[in-house]
Amino acid sequence: MIKILITGAAGFTGVKACAYFLKEGYEVYGMVHKNTPKEEKIKFLSCDLMNHEEVEATLKSIKPHYVLHLAGQNHSGVSWDKPIPTFMANANGTLNLLEGVRLHSPQAKIIVVGSVIDFNPCYLTKPNHPYGLSKYVQTLLSSCWSTMFDLNIMIARPSNLIGPGPSNGICSLLAKKIALNERTSTSIEFHFHNLLDQRDFLDVRDAIKAYHTIFKYGKKNNSYTIASGNSKSLVDVVRVFKDLTPTNLMITTDFFQRVEPIRIDIKAIKLLGWEPQYTFNQSLRDSLNYHRGNFF
């Protein structure tokens, strides 16, 4: 049986990734920082990616065939307040993981999950935030490690992931607030920085299927952007939620200024046979229904 190690297994994507690969017949090991979940069929283990000795011991004991690296500090807003911890988590944590693989499971296929909003020096003159720079450094180091040490590393660059489950993303936060206020029969106020901000949203379940596709068909040291290919404004998000709830949404914004969407090219992942299955509306509906079911 193929063994897969999933870091960040307690996170928004990690929980679903563990369940998905278990269903696909893999022996799943879920790495978490602390508070190991209880699940009979998934082997959860506690490991601090900042501690290279812990990481090496974990890789030595498992010797996985696949490694899906989801762990890290994944919030751009937090990176402004905590830039050093963000770099430590996203860059140093990744290097510790890759070293553990190099020493104890060098034939493993590794997907390092970056971000579509990382800093790209080809298009930008300066980073938009410390998070984007940290993800650029993370993927650059991963690519170099692949070349220098002949590791089978591939890069995945997902866009803004949405869908059912707890997340710090703006769609999930709005869905959670709507669900709470539906129970109290009150109107809600939600503040945006810029309602015309353009983003590519992709269902987390489609992203996980893309990771599986990369494991099966991806090529060493290649980078795959995973996105819907369709930009939506935050106005579009609000409109969909307004159609899904009787709650009165009071929306405020600092700016109402159109922003050009970032350049996204998903040809590489489509050539592997992947296509997104969940619509934008369906993802938001499932997110809202998830939060409706999690208030007691």
UniProtKB/TrEMBL annotation:
Pfam families: Epimerase. Keywords: Oxidoreductase. InterPro entries: Epimerase_deHydtase, NAD(P)-bd_dom_sf. It comes from the Bacteria. Its EC number is 1.1.1.281. Residues 4-227 form the NAD-dependent epimerase/dehydratase domain. It is an enzyme of class 1 (oxidoreductase). GO terms for molecular function: GDP-4-dehydro-6-deoxy-D-mannose reductase activity. Belongs to the NAD(P)-dependent epimerase/dehydratase family. This is GDP-4-dehydro-6-deoxy-D-mannose reductase.
